[in-house]
Amino acid sequence: MFGDLSGMMDKLKKAQEEVEKTKVRLDSVLIDETSADGKIKVTLTANRNIKSIAIDDSLLTDAEELEDFLIITLNKAIEKASKINVTEMASAAKSGMPNIPGM
């Protein structure tokens, strides 16, 4: 019994290490999103950290329009990054999980 427990603990530790490695790797995965008219471009990591925002000068005269474009474009980019993040983190966690009956 204790041998199995020790083996499960080792597998859990490996799963945790794999998750941490995946978090680090996802910081280097960049997602670019551009607004429909191409006037705003955002880049963020798969960990959902914004790296850059480029705004066309024509949007600088209308704050409301700029805000609308930013919200839409950022939300699209965050959605893409979240999908990648969830998939990769689930895969990393699952790869090292012990086979526990009933789970």
Automatic annotation (TrEMBL):
GO terms for cellular component: bacterial nucleoid; cytoplasm. InterPro entries: YbaB-like_sf, YbaB/EbfC. The keyword Zinc does not apply. Pfam families: YbaB_DNA_bd (PF02575). The keyword Secreted does not apply. Homodimer. Belongs to the YbaB/EbfC family. Binds to DNA and alters its conformation. May be involved in regulation of gene expression, nucleoid organization and DNA protection. This is Nucleoid-associated protein LPB301_16115. The lineage of its organism: Bacteria, Pseudomonadati, Bacteroidota, Flavobacteriia, Flavobacteriales.
